[in-house]
Predict the 3D structure of the following.
Amino acid sequence: MNFVSVRIITSDVSRLVEFYEGVTGLPATRYTEDFAELATPACTLAIGSERTVALFGAGSARPADNHSCIIEFRVDDVDQEYERLEDVVRAFVQKPTTTPWGNRSLLLRDPDGNLVNFFTPVSAEAIKKFAARA
């Protein structure tokens, strides 16, 4: 099995695509007005319109209603990312902080309210863990 993507359902695909292109620096591939993807070497972030939900079962997902998942991106230097994003992101949930499990982490919200974490492994154990996954 291979984990390949996370899909966000939104009522405004263009707004969310522009946000993620801006914060990640990755270009999105827009397949239709209702679906786009930002591909990374490890996983793809898919963004789908609420109109696509009917394909999976009416009411199975609701836009801007996530209260349990965090979308995470490993970056080379979370402090540099924070400086780069200060003029792009309206409000940060948490400025760069070192977590007890060894990552330096920056939390923000996308325009739909989804939590987004940019992190950099900084402890020897965290660096070793992520090096093994590369």
The radius of gyration is 16 Å. The helical segments are 13-24, 78-85, 124-133.
